[in-house]
Every structure is written in structure tokens, then in C-alpha cells.
Amino acid sequence: MQTCPDLKRNASVHLCVGFLRRTNSGPNRKMVPVKLLILGAQNTGKTALCVRFITKRFIGEYDHKKEVTYRCSRLVDQEAVEIEILDIACKSSVASLESSIRWADGFLLLYSITQRLSFGEVQQLKKLIDQTKQSLVVPTVLVANKADLEIGREVTTEEGQRLAKDLRCGFNELSVAETVSSVEAAVFQLIRLVLDQQRPLPDRRSYMLTVRHALTRKLTRSKTMQW
Ligand SMILES: Nc1nc2c(ncn2[C@@H]2O[C@H](COP(=O)(O)OP(=O)(O)OP(=O)(O)O)[C@@H](O)[C@H]2O)c(=O)[nH]1
């Protein structure tokens, strides 16, 4: 296993993957910014997931003292997306946690299948997210990590699926250590949820026009009746 003690030493890490070089999108193409926050109990693999997504490598141990913002650019369904993932310090105050929640557009909620306590913690975290965001729909994906440690499993896949349904989240059970593709799939699923929420409703304009016409007709009719 490789160690990476410096990753959490810098307040912000800029790991920009060469997206523009790999695609035919020109430099003038407008990127959509998407801000993600990864949350979960200690030792669930939050930093490992971020580093895996950004670098495709699994690094065993990290220094956990400071928060880190990971940055990269990816194409998601032909959309150029500028991604920021905030991995906060494990001993953050509630005030700083709430401020990070306000900053983010979407949330990765991580628990470890070998740690039942971490499963309980994601429920508390989702409650705090909903209270802080005060929005009916908050893009969130629940990630059950360490699926390679079947022998130490304390949370079943069905329990994870049920919780995701209750919390109205996406769900992925995976092993950051074993597969990079499932990590990418989970992050992309969240990005899609964020992009969907940011897109204007396709029929919002026509709906507004319909309402306007109906109101105009009603006003004209009532005027006619008055005269
Ligand atoms: N077996 C296994 N170990 C993993 C997996 N993901 C992470 N780990 C290990 O779990 C430990 C914790 O991972 P971290 O990424 O440091 O966890 P964290 O949630 O960022 O921890 P804190 O910053 O303390 O909250 C490390 O030893 C990782 O190597 C996985 O999928 N399988």
C-alpha cells in the first residue's frame, strides 16, 4: 500500500485532470461548476474515494488533519463539468459543517458495511443536510464502502437500499479499494442529479405562458361582464 501523508496537509489540492486535452471540446467551451461534499463517519474511506476518483489510484493511508478540496474536469453526458469535491477535516465544528453544507450542490454520504455505527451516522448527516438546505430535493448519493470486506459485514445491501429509498438518495455499494469504475459511477450519478436540478424544467416556459393566457382570458371576461 502506498502512503500519502501530504494529501491532507494542504488546505486545497488542485488536481486538474487534462480533460481539455482528451476531448475535442475547445478551450472556450463553458464549463458547468458542480460542488460536492463528501460526508460520513471516520475511517469510512472518504479520502480514499476522492483520491481514487481524481487519480484512479487507491492510496492506503492519509494524514487526516485538514480539509482538502479536490478539483478536476470531466465530461458528463457531453456536458463539460468542473468538479470540486470537499473532504472536510474529521474534527470539524457543527458551524463549519453547516457552512460546508450550504456551499455544496450535492452530497456523497459514505458508510462502511463493516461499521454499523457509520450507517447510523449517515441518517443524522442527511437530517442535518435537509435542515440546512431547506430544500425539498437535495441531490444525494448514499455510498456503502468496503464491499471487499464481506467477512466483516455488519450492514446488509438490502438495509442500504432501504435507507436510500427512505432518504430519497441514489445508492451504490462498492469497494474503493477494488474498483475505480464503481467509484466513478457513484460520483457521476451524483453529478447527474445536480445537473438535473440546475436545469430549468423543460416545459416551465410553456407552462407560464399557459397560465398567463388563462389569466388574460379570465380578466378580459370579467371586464366584459362589468361593462
Ligand atoms: N478494505 C478496504 N479498505 C478501505 C476501503 N476504502 C478505504 N479503506 C481504508 O480505510 C481506512 C480509512 O480510509 P480513509 O480514506 O482515510 O477514511 P476517511 O473517511 O477519510 O477517514 P477520516 O478522515 O478519519 O474521517 C484506510 O486505511 C483505507 O485504506 C475499501 O474499499 N476497502
Automatic annotation (TrEMBL):
Q: Per UniProt, which keywords does this protein have?
A: GTP-binding, Hydrolase, Nucleotide-binding
Broadest EC class assigned to this enzyme: hydrolase
Q: Which reaction does it catalyse?
A: GTP + H2O = GDP + phosphate + H(+)
List the GO molecular function terms. G protein activity; GTP binding
Q: Which domain of life is it from?
A: Eukaryota
Family the UniProt entry places it in: Belongs to the small GTPase superfamily. Ras family.
The protein here is known as small monomeric GTPase
What species was this sequence derived from? Echeneis naucrates (Live sharksucker)
Its gene is zgc:110699
